[in-house]
Amino acid sequence: MAHRPVPQADDGGQQDAVRRRPRLNQAAVLRAGVVLADAVGIDGFTMRTLAQELGVAPMALYKHVANKQELLDGMVDLVWAEVTEPDAARGWKPALRERAVSLRNGLVRHRWAVGLMEAHGRPGLENLKQHNALLGCLRESGFSFRTAVHVTSLLDAYIYGFALQQKTLSFETPEESGQAAAATRDGIPDDAAARYPYLLEVVGELAAEGYDYDVEFETGLDVLLDGIDALRASWRNG
Amino acid sequence: MAHRPVPQADDGGQQDAVRRRPRLNQAAVLRAGVVLADAVGIDGFTMRTLAQELGVAPMALYKHVANKQELLDGMVDLVWAEVTEPDAARGWKPALRERAVSLRNGLVRHRWAVGLMEAHGRPGLENLKQHNALLGCLRESGFSFRTAVHVTSLLDAYIYGFALQQKTLSFETPEESGQAAAATRDGIPDDAAARYPYLLEVVGELAAEGYDYDVEFETGLDVLLDGIDALRASWRNG
DNA sequence: ACCTGAACACCGTTCAAGT
DNA sequence: ACCTGAACACCGTTCAAGT
After folding, report:
1. CB contact under 8 A, B162 and A159
2. CATH code for the structural domain at A72-169+224-238
3. Which long-range contacts (CB under 8 A, 24 or more apart) does B106-109 make?
4. pLDDT band at residue A173, thresholds of 50, 70 and 90?
C-alpha cells in the first residue's frame, strides 16, 4: 500500500471522527439529510441548506447523489432500515403487531417520510428486504398468496394513513392534544358551532380527556389483526 | 345604478358565460386550481401556471386568496364537498361503507389531495360538515363517544393510507398493474432476486393475475367494518 | 375594486473551472 | 477525484402603479 502524505498521525483510517469535515460520501450525505429533514421538516429541506449543514458548496452534493429526488429516495430507505422485520417464528400475530408498531414509530420519528414512502422512484433495497420479510412471515404462517397480499395492503394502508393523520396534527402528548382541541373549538365561529353539534361534542370531550395517539393506533391495529384472524380461514381458498 | 361604459350589449349580468375571461372570484380560482392540479399534479401546480390558465397575471390571484397555502386549503375543501355524507337512517354499516368508497373515489379523482387533506391550515367548512355527519351517524347508531372516535380514526386512516399507496403507483387497470409488476421484477438485479424470494413470488403472481385496486380496497374495508361490528358491544362501556 | 410589471429573495441544477 | 463560483431558469410573494 503506497504511503500517502497525511497531516495527522496515522490512526488506522479513523481520522474522520475528529476532523471538522470528513471526506463526503453518499452514506454521509443521506444520513445528514435525515437529520436535517427531522429538524426542519420537508419544506425547509433544500439542497442548499443541506450543503451548508455539511460545510460544503451546494454543488458538492451532486457528486454523491444524482439529484434531489434520488437523495430523498435514499433517505426513505434509511427509514426502512430502522423498521423491525417480522419473524414468523414468534407467531404471525405478535410478529405483525411488532412490525406495525416499529414502522409507525419510524414514521413518527421521521414525519417527512410518510409522504415520500411510496414515491415515484424505484423502491430501495431496505424497502424490498422489509416487504420480502413481511410476505415471508405470512406465507410461512400458512397464509395463501392472495391473502398475504390483502393483509399487506390492509396493514400498510392503516399504518401510512394513521401516520399521515398524526403528522400534520402538531401536538404530541395527550395534554397538548386537549389544548389543540380547545383551540379548534374556540376557532369555530358561533354559527358554525350550532351546525356541527356532533363535532363539537367530540372536540369538547377530547379537550377534557385528551387523546393518546399510541393508544389510538394500537386499538385500531388490534381490530385489524383480529379481523384478519377471523377471516383467515375463509380466505384460505381465495 | 350609475350607467357604466360597456363595449357589449346589456345581457342582465349574464355576460360572463360568453366572455373569454369572466371577472375572477375566489370560487372560480379554487375550481380552476382543482382542474389544473388534476391535470398536471402537485409538482407542476404553481401560482404562475394557474394564473396563465386563467389568462391573468400571477399577482391577480392574490386579490382572491391570501397565499398558496390558503389556495390549497380551499381546493381540498372542494374535494370534501364531493364526498357523500353518511346517513344513519340507512344503517351504520352501509352508510359508512358508502362514505368510505365515496371518499376514496374523491382521493383517486384528485390524487394531489391526499397529501394535503390533514394539512396544517384550519380545516375547511366542508371538512367540518363531513366529519360532523360521520360522527353523527355513529352516535345516532348507538356508538359511544369513545368508540365513535376509534371508528373515525380507524376508517379514515385506512382510506388515506390506501389512497396514498395508490397515488404513487401510477397504473390504473389490472392489466397495467401486471405490466408494472413485470417491469419491477425485471428491474430487480439477479442477486437481489435470490435474496427476496417471497417478494418475487408476489410480483410474479401479480404480473400474471393483475391487481384490482377497487377490489383490494373493498376487501380491506369489509374486514374493518366486520371488525368494528364484532367489537361494538365490548366497546360500549369503553 | 381589480389587475399589472418590475423586482426580491429564494429554489434545483448546468457548466466551466479549479485543486 | 472531488469541490467551487458564477450563471440559468424557475419559484412565491412584495410593492408601487395603473384603470
Report:
1. no
2. 1.10.357
3. B106/B79, B106/B80, B106/B82, B107/B79, B107/B159, B107/B160, B107/B163, B107/B167, B108/B163, B108/B166, B109/B38, B109/B79, B109/B82
4. low
